[in-house]
## 1
Amino acid sequence: MARPRKPLLSRDRIVAAALALIDAEGLAALSTRRLAAELGVSGPSLYNHFATKEAILDAAADTVIGNVDVSMFGDGRHDWRAALLEWARSYRAALTAHPNIVPFLAVGPGLRPAGLRMADAVFGGMVEAGWPPAQATRIGALMRYFVTGSALGTFAGGFVGDPAAYDPADYPHLGQAHRLADHREQVDAAAFETGLRALVDGLALQFR
Amino acid sequence: MARPRKPLLSRDRIVAAALALIDAEGLAALSTRRLAAELGVSGPSLYNHFATKEAILDAAADTVIGNVDVSMFGDGRHDWRAALLEWARSYRAALTAHPNIVPFLAVGPGLRPAGLRMADAVFGGMVEAGWPPAQATRIGALMRYFVTGSALGTFAGGFVGDPAAYDPADYPHLGQAHRLADHREQVDAAAFETGLRALVDGLALQFR
DNA sequence: GTCTATAAGTGGATAGAC
DNA sequence: GTCTATCCACTTATAGAC
């Protein structure tokens, strides 16, 4: 096939396919060949739209962050505590929708446009609410730590469903740990909510 | 060279070299060939000590977690708040000593022995302090989220030192963001401390 | 703007000699 | 227990035809 009448590819289609592939098979499964095959196209064609594979990943990561709702900052209908709670939940939901890209997204430079827009909104919202700028910066940072950490690693998933795996001689307190394996999502979601509330409550103690 | 009098390799030497290589050049730089070269040995020799490359990474990750101090749990000299604060700081220090392995360590199953010993100690310490088991589990989980998240991603590092990078039209509140690039460690460390205190203070409000 | 062909290289892992 | 030799799948990216 030579040049088709209509372009077969577009940046959006490539990013969507990359995200789907990463979701289905993990970060390591994303190769330019695999991705091109998924799009019904030959490998090198991707380079007409992105300079490198890294650029594709950056675009995919930014798409994920773009799904985070930041409309609660500075709309006058939320106090800073409510805004922080809502934003954190939206942030976590955006990441857990594509968990396999989180390691890339969390390590990367974070200079991507959607990430900056999010940082800008959070910082602006906190300052407007009365936080000193230095504290507003820290709040943005620490919330990022907590949300990315919770989206990255399932805690409950670290335990297997086999009671025999936890010899009381080695792990005296883990006698019931095998039960966690059956409720991974619930355990992780509950831990996130507990931590989120503690964080916001604890910050409120520092306000002013 | 045939079989040497004394083994040239050992699991410990391999793990130490792997960690050094990951520290110096990142996770992606760890290949069996590179690692073997670093040890003055030929590639396949590693397979006499580890079945797969993954097993080497698991051992390296477990070594890092093994450096976390958990002695403050259940020693009678710490209340739960002080124990949590001390543990979290030791945990973060262990991870930031080897930041490049954190993505692997945080995603992985966490079934490794040192990780289980740590989970066991934290859970036991919280239950002993009077927390209900379900809450003790959540505390272990949410602290893991926060610490791994903070060790994984530098927040401040996501900003470049060039003021022109933050056009006020796009990011109305990031006018001073370029200053963060100069103090990455301090900003990240301060955000961690602020979040840690908020977490523990917030949890105290939920106690009983 | 997609194709074919291919460069130029890396990866993990195995077989069998010593 | 380390070696050499080797397999083979797979990688990102480029050159040039159409």
## 2
Amino acid sequence: MNNDKTIESMSDLLKIVGDKTRLKMLAFLKQGERCVCEFVDLFDLSQPAISQHLKKMRAAGLINERKQGTWVYYRLNDQLPSYVTEIIQALPLLETKTCDCQATGLSIPLETLK
Amino acid sequence: MNNDKTIESMSDLLKIVGDKTRLKMLAFLKQGERCVCEFVDLFDLSQPAISQHLKKMRAAGLINERKQGTWVYYRLNDQLPSYVTEIIQALPLLETKTCDCQATGLSIPLETLK
DNA sequence: CACTTATATAATAGTATAATTATATTAGTT
DNA sequence: AACTAATATAATTATACTATTATATAAGTG
């Protein structure tokens, strides 16, 4: 086995995790699944910026997505290296602001209930 | 307490840890104290680059230094956040090449023994 | 089908990070 | 004191990252 390759892959993953915005996203995801629109509401960033952060975390295997209609929900991957799990555990729990798409507590669009 | 500040400080620390070269340095330091000259030998990088990486890790509180004559030895700080300890534990053990300044196994310059 | 909403992608500009070369500092040696 | 070796700092360049604006896609609705 190649040690340098291990270190490089750890570096790649830690660089993804180490960004302030992405850490905050991970902190929110500790509480469960969240839709993209919630991040757009919660962060003082443009929607494309949010989308690109989520893409990077998805590509790194940190999060998984679930699509429901136009909405996309992300959740933490439950198979993460222990050192990543430890980082996420160390993150503070953040206050939840409820987004329209979660107002029902059902995590699905209201329209689908009509 | 301010959650954003916690996240920001975690981000700052993870950015320091997440660099490939610095991760490799931390992997070497798992085996114990090392002098700067060893890093200069072991890495395919200029001496100033090594020095700057060590400075950042020192400033972040990841490592401690001990000066002995012209030589400077660094070791892991033994009081690190658990999530950092976990990262270091996950690093592979790297082969040790012995440097002149460690040839005695005493970690001190030969000249001081004269 | 035109319109709206949610999300993603592309192009680009701004900022941060790490590398190099050059130079300074500090300790030890002759 | 001059010389060498080890390390640090400064200045600069190159590269990588993140944010923005503009645009595309895809689903849902009237």
## 3
Amino acid sequence: MPGALPLNELAGWYRASARDLPWRRPEFDAWGTLVSEIMLQQTQAARVAVEIDRWLTRWPTPADLADAPTHEVLRQWGTLGYPRRALRLQDTARAIVERHGREVPRDVDALLALPGVGDYTARAVAVFHYGDRHPVVDTNVRRVIARAVHGQGEAGPAKRRDLADVEALLPAEPAEASVISIALMELGALVCTARAPRCEVCPIAAACAWRAAGYPAYEGKRAPRQSRFAGSDRQARGTVLRALRGVDVPLTEAELAPLWPEDEQRERAIGSLAADGLVVREGGSVRLPH
DNA sequence: GTCCCGTCTC
DNA sequence: GAGACTGGAC
């Protein structure tokens, strides 16, 4: 087992170099933290940063979002991507109102039970807002640990085991553990990046097992190649939903047809959007849910 | 064109 | 464990 990470160097680097992001402001409450973490699941921080304040101004509490018309929630979600997250966020707001007395739960298992909240998001809220001690493991953290601790260039597919691995290297004190978790994420986002790591400015380069081994090429399993977006069902779904966000009336199949001329794929896209609850078919028309 | 990268479903 | 799911950056 390689030596321990220099945690003091890492924490010091974070304090000096962290980006000034809205959700790191001290006045961000538990709800704001949860909303921002859901948005950050699939979307770059810079894009979330320009949307989060507008969202929280409109729906400052779970009760406000629970009562909102779903079509307005989808419109406000805009082009953040993966709009099923917006539906699940509203479902989560309703669950918080109904099951948790309008307060975002602190307990990790209660958070995990909320729709759209998985291993990363549940612990991010418990750690970054409530200050509890848990491993917060996203892809950045897994890559940093893979390199610095295990001497591997890449992390390979996510495993449950990763949580225990990270937990083992966190300081015992919850506040210190929280800083290390956020610092590992920030290091992976800014310095220990996937494609062009900037080892010359890395605060833990001297202890990095991958660097010490001479940057061996990664031999393990890789995530499968992502299929093409152009011409995909994903693109067709996005095209239909974008059109519906832009109007406040249902669109007929005839109005949608020119936007995605291939009939079979357009129908499949509308059908899968309806199955997800993102659109409603009514007669020969398609609309956003009320 | 390639990469990004958490949750859910199967 | 594998694949679906968006839109934008590079």
## 4
Amino acid sequence: MTVPERLISAATELFAAKGFDRVAVQEIVDRAGVTKGAMYHYFGSKDDLLHEIYGSVLRMQTERLEKIAAGDGPVVERLHAAASDVIVTSIDNFDQAKVYFRSADHLAEDKRLAMRSERRRYHERFRALVEEGQAAGVFRADVPADVTVHYYFGAVHHLATWYSPDGVLSAEDVGRHYADLLVGSLRP
Amino acid sequence: MTVPERLISAATELFAAKGFDRVAVQEIVDRAGVTKGAMYHYFGSKDDLLHEIYGSVLRMQTERLEKIAAGDGPVVERLHAAASDVIVTSIDNFDQAKVYFRSADHLAEDKRLAMRSERRRYHERFRALVEEGQAAGVFRADVPADVTVHYYFGAVHHLATWYSPDGVLSAEDVGRHYADLLVGSLRP
Amino acid sequence: MTVPERLISAATELFAAKGFDRVAVQEIVDRAGVTKGAMYHYFGSKDDLLHEIYGSVLRMQTERLEKIAAGDGPVVERLHAAASDVIVTSIDNFDQAKVYFRSADHLAEDKRLAMRSERRRYHERFRALVEEGQAAGVFRADVPADVTVHYYFGAVHHLATWYSPDGVLSAEDVGRHYADLLVGSLRP
Amino acid sequence: MTVPERLISAATELFAAKGFDRVAVQEIVDRAGVTKGAMYHYFGSKDDLLHEIYGSVLRMQTERLEKIAAGDGPVVERLHAAASDVIVTSIDNFDQAKVYFRSADHLAEDKRLAMRSERRRYHERFRALVEEGQAAGVFRADVPADVTVHYYFGAVHHLATWYSPDGVLSAEDVGRHYADLLVGSLRP
DNA sequence: CATGAATGAGTCTTCATTCAT
DNA sequence: TATGAATGAAGACTCATTCAT
């Protein structure tokens, strides 16, 4: 593992466990086994570290959503698959996901804006799926697609708060349940 | 408004806007128009302030849930009312709710435990409502009630991230939509 | 001596001896016998300390120049007195003057501008004296007054580099010599 | 341009613009288009760079002064030429001169001493010229030659603070004015 | 000759909290 | 009740220099 990888890895664990503001740069470099100077050689700031972790989750989930949404099954199935997939991948990369879900607003102004627009794209792709089903008449249309998407992502983000990999529910269990609830709630 | 009230009020606004760790005690007392000494006269620590804000939301919502759940209408209606009510009251006290939703893990160990058990009670009362419906056969039983409740509270907590009182959706709109989605998803 | 006074005094000595950039805040507070927190209670930054020292010299010298220039003797005598006075007061407050003469450009942008305009006023008052003599025909006019003033202030600022209070020359000696040279150079 | 030349050149510009302590080695090598390793291959330290720049100005000016002083015209003319020459060459090599004039005390102990004695030699050669005129009765003797020389060099050093090559005054203009003032002030 | 990763000591600044008054 | 001066520990970040390659 290279030094920057070790740093990212250490930062991910710590940010996930204590939150960005509660982690000192010193702790990160100690855990990575390097000195502060080394960290600032690779990353411009503590914020950069967060940004990097952020980006990797967002990129991965965006790619997967795109692929699933572009499939050719019925929209109900595609939405179910997408809803389930975001849960499974979040749990499979739980520390990264925790950081992503909880530290959104800790980024400095400039990076926050860049991130925001990437995020919006994800949100919109998901919403398009819901709207497609509404247009096709298979989803209820009395609740705005936008509200539904916020509703579902709330549930997803909250995973970081209650889910434990050591419990009885596997990632797939939760994915299936959540997707069932979402799709179920959209029945006309 | 008394001094402690002014302090709570100032702290609520600031914590809601920037997050607990990003607010200095000095900012709070400045906004409240008092000095630091005064704050430490009334509150033992910065944490205490958070605890106070926390408590007030949780207490209020617990009381209301209790009353609604204990009503005598059909369980579907009671769940819908409870689901909608938590949204409306959260939006009506949006700053307090934001603090409550986002700063859970910032409390010191001892206070966190106290808080946790209050929280669990609320969660369990809500879950009981779902289970009641499942037992009565009006709610689907293939998704554990526990998962459903986490799912819904995720959506609720996420309000703090996306909802704006200045937008087109009123508190009641969102309450109705969210409750519709929840109840809809529980149909067998 | 109050704490802020002790801080200013310690900072003056240290800045004079080593230059602004070579002095650590820690050294200043150690010498003043307080902690860093105390310093930041009274001064917003290390720059503020510099600004304070700066200001006091500049204010004093401006006031004295104003008074001397406004006198009613012949212009030759007033210029001689002003030229001599700036030397004597600089030597009497040698540490402060050293800081003033050598650390001009170390101030942060905003404070530098404020300072600059005060400084210009001083320069212009002095120049007006030279121009008055030129208009009266008692000073040569082939060298622009502006150049002469820069020339003389260069000599003054340089005091910090070579003069020592322990040498054979008293402040008055240097003042007289410098003023003699200036007035002598302006003879037609 | 060789690598060491590029480094010297970059360092000169940066030191002149921001002062020795405000320039990072990284900036210098970036501007020179090389890496830090390369710099430390050619120069022992950041101080060395300063020393090099220093030396070149001082050496050049010493040589020229020597030549001018050893001429065979009247002492008044030789002093005027020397006084004017130091201005013109300082302005022609303005960045180097700025560094030389302003960063005197930033050198490490050992190098500072070496520099000091070279400097003294220059000062003494100049003073000898003044004393020669005093002995010949063409310069006033009531102001010590030593003081006069400090006085004049102050004016020279101060150029770095106010002179701009883009203004209306050419190097020769300033040289003539300054020399006129010096020679004028020495009239008996 | 030259790279660039890594060091380690040092920089300024922030802040929750205490305490004499 | 309330002040505000003072503390002390911790915070993020910088930078000249070294060294294996």
